[in-house]
């Protein structure tokens, strides 16, 4: 299995920290956010990881190299000067991912979720990890039914954690589902959520509820809190 890490965002809410450093390369607990993912992917036995890049793209290979220090092979999928959003970013990375299901994780989240809990392949087109809505975004994204199916709406909506298992075929009909696709850098630019919602109607999206730790590291304040918590966690008690 291969993995894809979304790392192309501009990190606008994180400025001024992201003026000179891409958000996934900001350090928490003594190492860049993205390295937490790389270590977990390597421990899972994954060897090929695609990192999609745009903003300050040259810093990723300069910082991470070819991935050999983690026993990984890193492949960089450059989107161009303008990020292509989640759907366009996945589309851009497909030539490096191949035809098999792949693990996806957002480069700007931190979690104690164990990637080994993911199925080896989704029952449908995607399997999503969902968490309780955080205080700064209390409305959630999707509902999860007792049979493990994900729905666009429901009595209680959970938040997509930015972690999932995807089949490349999810993007087969993207042109039919994105009514007015934009283009950037000569490539399609579109979000992933409309595709997921469309396929939820056919029961093709499954999911699970992670009740452990998870942080969307979207602001300097959340970055600082996470860094403090991780450093306290690693400090031996006296």
Explained architecture:
The protein is of the alpha/beta class and 238 residues long. The chain has six helices and 15 strands. The protein has helices spanning 33-44, 59-64, 85-97, 174-177, 193-200, 220-234; strands spanning 2-6, 27-28, 31-32, 48-53, 73-78, 102-106, 109-111, 126-131, 142-144, 150-151, 157-166, 182-184, 187-189, 205-209, 214-216. Strands 1, 4, 5, 6, 8, 9, 10, 11 and 14 form a nine-stranded mixed beta sheet that branches. Strands 2-3 form a two-stranded antiparallel sheet. A two-stranded antiparallel sheet has the order 7-15. A hairpin with a 5-residue loop joins strand 9 and strand 10 (150-151). The protein is globular, with a radius of gyration of 17 Å.
Question: What string, H for helix and E for strand, traces the elements in order?
Answer: EEEHEHEHEEEEEEHEEHEEH
Q: Report how far apart the termini are.
A: 42 Å
Number of helices, where a helix is a run of at least 4 consecutive DSSP H or I residues: 6
**Gyration radius, rounded:** 17 Å
Strand segment tally: 15
Using the alpha-carbon principal axes, give the shape.
Answer: globular
Please report which band the strand proportion falls in: under 5%, 5-15%, 15-25%, 25-35%, 35-45% or over 45%. Answer: 25-35%
Mean pLDDT level: 93
Detail the poorly predicted runs.
Answer: none
Helix content: 10-25%
Q: Which structural class is indicated by helix and strand composition?
A: alpha/beta
Main beta-sheet strand count, sense and barrel state: 9 strands, mixed
């Amino acid at each position: 299995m291969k993995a894809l890490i979304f790392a192309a965002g501009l990190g606008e809410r994180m400025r001024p920290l992201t003026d000179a450093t891409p958000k996934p390369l900001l350090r928490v607990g003594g190492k860049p956010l993205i390295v937490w993912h790389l270590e977990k992917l390597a421990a899972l036995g994954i060897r090929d990881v695609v990192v999609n890049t745009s903003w300050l793209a040259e810093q990723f290979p300069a910082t991470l190299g070819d991935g050999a220090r983690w026993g990984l092979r890193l492949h960089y999928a450059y989107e161009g000067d303008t990020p292509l959003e989640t759907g366009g970013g996945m589309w851009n990375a497909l030539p490096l991912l191949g035809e098999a299901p792949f693990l996806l994780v957002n480069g700007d989240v931190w979690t104690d979720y164990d990637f080994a809990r993911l199925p080896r392949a989704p029952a449908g087109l995607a399997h999503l990890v969902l968490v309780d809505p955080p205080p700064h975004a209390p409305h959630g994204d999707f509902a999860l039914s007792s049979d493990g199916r994900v729905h666009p709406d429901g009595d209680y909506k959970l938040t997509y954690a930015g972690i999932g298992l995807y089949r490349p075929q999810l993007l087969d009909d993207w042109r039919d589902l994105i009514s007015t696709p934009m283009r950037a850098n000569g490539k399609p630019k579109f979000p992933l959520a409309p595709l997921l919602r469309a396929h939820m109607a056919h029961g093709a999206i499954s999911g699970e509820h992670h009740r452990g730790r998870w942080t969307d590291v979207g602001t300097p304040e959340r970055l600082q809190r996470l860094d403090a918590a991780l450093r306290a966690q690693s400090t031996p008690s006296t």
